[in-house]
Amino acid sequence: MPRIPWEIRRNFYKNSKCRVRFAPSPTGFLHLGGLRTALYNYLFARSQDGSFILRIEDTDQTRVVPGAMEQLRDDLIWAGIIPDEDPIRDGPVGPYIQSKRIDLYQTQVKTLLDNGSAYKCFCTESRLKLLKNTALKERQIPKYDNRCRNFTSEEIKERLMRGDKYCIRFKLIPTPEPFHDLIYGDITYNVAQNEGDPIIMKSDGFPTYHFANVVDDHFMAITHVMRGVEWQISTPKHLLLYKAFGWTPPLYAHLPLIMNSDNTKLSKRQDDIRVEHYKREGIFPLALINYITAAGGGFNRHMGLSHCYSYEELIKQFDISKVNVNSSKLNPDKLMEFNQLEIANLLNNKKNHEFLVERVIELLKQTFPDRVSDGSLEIDPVHIITTLTWAHNRITKLNDLVTPDLKFLWIKPTTNGESKNLKYLEMIGILSKKLESIDETNFCKESLKIYLKEFAINNNVAFPDLMKTLRSLLSGLKEGPSVVEMMEILGRDATLNRLKRKA
User: Fold this and answer.
1) Which residues are catalytic?
2) What residues form DSSP beta bridges with 228?
3) pTM for this structure?
4) I need a surface site. Which of 60, 286, 312, 347 has the fewest CB within 10 A?
């Protein structure tokens, strides 16, 4: 069935209260800067009862990475940022991939050619390169000299008849008046004075970023454009395009840079700014979201930073007027604090226990694949939740549960030569029967420490040797948590199971 015409589709949202978009290029992974932009758009849309759109800007086909679009969308959904319209779900103003909207761009560029706002440029690559080199030699900023803007209709006709290749450029005009940035206030940049006429349609028939961006925002009825401050200098150019079309532009807000803790810029070469990196490291989505929102402002905080806010809280708190204009620094220590808080939050609600158990089981199978088949892996759900309850104040991420000194929690140790030769090993059978009589609610380290000391005295066993034997039988480790703490973590049943296997 044919699609409804573009302008009619746009009218579906003509009176929409708020429509924002996140429009990444599928040229690689989603990093923290992109996640912050998507998040602030999403929170703004939800706070205004509006819509959040995911649009893929892939007009530069030479830079497209296969699978990047799907990964971008998956990363957003993992982070809890769910688009209302996107390339997968589609929507009334799709397609949501620019390479599938070429017919729209070609129609709209003809409008600018017809009203004299754009022109065909026949300059060759060699001429443009010469212009650039000359400018650099004279220590000037390279820019196009607008030569083809003044061609007569006869000159254009002659070049077309010769079959000369051409692109289409937009005529810049002076912009002495400022535009209002919702974050930075009034901004003045005379684009015509500093730049040459930009290409809006390449010779291959694909639009450039600036042109496609404006056309898409108009036909998708975008009301607010919230993007990184690096695009602020391009805004006057975009506003001129709106003026040439006779369209009403959206409101603009530019987000300040996010910096590393040492004040250096985030770089795509950093592995630790990828969303995928945090997923692999066991960081929970809400912890990562709080990590980003803790830097840069934009929120009416009520409980300070030592609280992992829910999405509902963040939506209520979001205030675009509170966004700082200065660059903000990330604090990795805060990320670990937020992740620890989120583990505690998840544990406090029994509805989340199944999710946590699944995560831990998946982690155990990945970490100890050889133990899955031999049956020595402890993956009992009750044991997992008990362990998490003990550990949540001691760990900052789930991955900490599988470190060498804590692997005893999950792996049943095999009988080794040292434990077999210990003269106190025969006491373990007696101790096991005694431990069975202890109520599970009293199976805590304080009670166990008293009980084991009394057992050692009553059975003429040296307490240090008893502890050494128990440590070996329970964990196979020479170091780690205290014996009574091990027993408390493992619980009565798991402790007895391990001791009976050795006795």
Assistant:
1) 268
2) 255
3) 0.86
4) 312
